Amino acid sequence: MIRFALRNLAVKKVQVILVILSVVVSAGTGVLAYNTAAQVSDGITGTAAYYSAIIGPSGSKTQLAMNSMYFTDEPLGVIPYSLVEELLRDSRVVSAVPFAMADEYNGYSVVGTSPEYLSGKRLAEGEMFAASGECEAVLGYTAAKVCGAEVGDLIYTGHSAGQTHKTPLRIVGILERTHTVYDSQVFTQLRTIWVLHEAEEEEEEEEEDHDHLELDGMVCAVMVKTRNPAYATALVGEYDGKVVSYDKGSGEGASLYTLTAIEPMATVRGILREADNTRYIVFVLCGIILAMNVIVVSIVTLLNMYHSAAEIALMRLIGIGMGRINLLYLVQNAFAGLLSTVLAFCVSRLCLGLMGGYVASMGVVLDPSKVYPAELLILFCVFLISVLPTLVCTLVMSRRDSLGS
């Protein structure tokens, strides 16, 4: 039965290829759209849920969230590091982690922070940079792999490829692959950022000024974890719009800094709500493609059954019952449908892999190995749709044939 069905498929190559292409396009598009939307949503909300509040310079709350959590956009500016010390003295605060980003290494952002920022991230090799040290670096998996960097290597960071600091960083560790934006970053002590920029400022005192942040004693944001959500809400209310002063000791007097404070989850939910309309449009388009797939498969099946009339008559003539003939065509189309759905799944994984490198630069990470139950449901439904027209046709033919069995 199976061997005959396969031979029959080989004879009808054009019809089979048309059905397979139709199913691959519809199922592949549906699975790809769902997986991408789900991974983006999970990735954004998962990262946002880790911190209770983020405090940074005055400006866009969305930009503050995207820069400090997903390493996209430019920092809003700087605020005094003394704010970190102030928050750590607050009984409502569990931790206050500094965040600074101003340099890059071969296109990968350099983040100045404390080891606590990488809490929960495992090292593939080496060790974490020391909190009290400086000029040590831990590279994300992708950054290390693409740059061919290894533990013990010295790397030079800077504002761009043509403006590197003279002091190198020594790689002390490489993170395990996380399938997150952390894979494409370089992490070092906050003090390292200060030391590199302080040395640069001294070298440039009598040279032309460069457009970059003055980071000595400053941070771009503070990532805060509180003892409960109510404390986070209270902190945001206290610090959002607050003005703080900081005296650098340069004799120019104290500078004033206006703060922005956010609750990451609330900010991210706002971003996702704005993206929902786009996602719904994609799903509607997938539904239209799926409907077209039903039409194409039905037409091809009807034509196939019509052109198989002589073949069916011959099988009836040699004593094969209509029930067995129906089963033959069901097996034949089920095999084509199964092959199509498997190919659709493979194509969706290939597209995720190709898209991953591009969207990673925007702070979005797509893991081709991640499969959601809803994807399997979509594939199963498409498989049924590819077989259903054949089932209907064979049932109609059985009813018309008084000799059907």
Task: Describe the structure in your own words.
The strands form 3 sheets. Strands 1, 3, 4, 5, 6, 7, 10, 11, 13, 14 and 15 form an 11-stranded mixed sheet that branches. A two-stranded antiparallel sheet has the order 2-12. It has 11 helices and 15 strands. It is elongated and about 105 Å long. The chain is an alpha+beta fold. The protein has helices spanning 2-11, 13-48, 61-70, 82-88, 141-147, 190-203, 229-239, 264-307, 309-317, 322-359, 373-400; strands at residues 53-57, 79-80, 93-105, 108-113, 123-126, 136-139, 154-155, 158-160, 163-164, 169-175, 185-189, 218-219, 221-226, 243-246, 255-262. Helix content is 53%, strand content 18%. α2 runs antiparallel to α8 (264-307).
Number of helices: 11
Oligomer: single chain
Please state the CA-atom Rg, rounded to the nearest Å.
Answer: 30 Å
Strand content: 15-25%
State the gist of this model.
The protein is α+β, with helices and mostly antiparallel strands.
Q: Main attributes?
A:
single chain; about 400 residues; alpha+beta; 2 domains; 11-stranded mixed sheet; two-stranded antiparallel sheet; about 55% helix
Task: Give me the secondary-structure topology.
Blueprint: H1 2-11, H2 13-48, E1 53-57, H3 61-70, E2 79-80, H4 82-88, E3 93-105, E4 108-113, E5 123-126, E6 136-139, H5 141-147, E7 154-155, E8 158-160, E9 163-164, E10 169-175, E11 185-189, H6 190-203, E12 218-219, E13 221-226, H7 229-239, E14 243-246, E15 255-262, H8 264-307, H9 309-317, H10 322-359, H11 373-400
Parallel strand pairs: 4-11, 6-10
Antiparallel strand pairs: 1-13, 1-15, 2-12, 3-4, 3-13, 5-10, 6-11, 7-10, 8-9, 14-15
Helix pairs in contact: 1-10, 2-8, 2-10, 2-11, 8-11, 10-11
